[in-house]
Amino acid sequence: MGKTAWLTTKAGFDEVAIVEETSSCRTLTIKSGAKSGQTMTIPPSGRPHGDFHPALYVADKQPDVFRHKGRSLRVLDVAEFPNLEQAAALVPAIEPYTFLPHTSKLIDGIIAGDHQLLFGGTGVGKTSLVLQIAARIGQPVIRLNFNGQVSVSDLVGSVGFGKNGTVWNDGALPRAMRNGFWIVLDEIDFAAPEILSIFILCLRLLRHSASRNTTAKS
Predict the structure, then answer these.
(1) What is the DSSP secondary structure assignment for residue 61, as one 8-state letter?
(2) Which partner for 143 in 77, 134, 178, 184 could form a disulfide, CB atoms 3.0-4.6 Å apart?
(3) In sequence order, which ranges of the chain are alpha helices (DSSP H)?
(4) pLDDT one-digit tens code per residue, 181-208
(5) Run of H or E residues at 7
(6) What does each C-alpha distance from 172 to 34, 45, 64, 184 come to in angstroms?
(7) What region does 12 belong to: left with phi over 0, alpha with psi -120 to 50, or beta?
(8) In terms of C-beta density within 10 A (0-12 exposed, 13-18 middle, 19 or more buried), how is residue 26 classed?
């Protein structure tokens, strides 16, 4: 019958089965409700279906999601993260918040897996927007404020001493990368040159890795 999935609708979800999936489309059969048994075609993974993005969640049971103007993000289970205790401590608290229209652009970037650059005056809610989305989907966040006190070791890590000898202590960046945490870099325009050089190196490594993967696939 195909994989069970959930098609996003204005009312919630329709349970469907994925009959066929290609690079250009996905063919679905509706499993329940008034349209049960009907077949439909929607765009491939990563593309919106009408006003909904993502359109389809592959899962045995109906997912819990955060919705905003046709966009949706799956609510995460803290047990999905490698370091359960650390992850639970880093999920922001839900606070009253009004999500403005530009929230859609941030969610689109999250869905695409892109890095986000938010800019604007002090106090307009750039950091709060990220933290409140994270709070509603259970996403752990590491937050660094570049106020002159952040060092290279804070960001990258340092060598320390343990009972078995020297040990490596991850900084904020590798800790986020290893565990699937978001990292928010507040006031990055005030970061010292040696800090910014770390990000330039990371971007070069990512581009090099992407280039190697493309070559391997071609």
Answers:
(1) S
(2) 184
(3) 84-90, 103-112, 126-137, 152-156, 172-179, 193-217
(4) 999 988 888 888 888 888 777 767 666 5
(5) strand 3-8
(6) 50, 32, 29, 10
(7) left
(8) buried
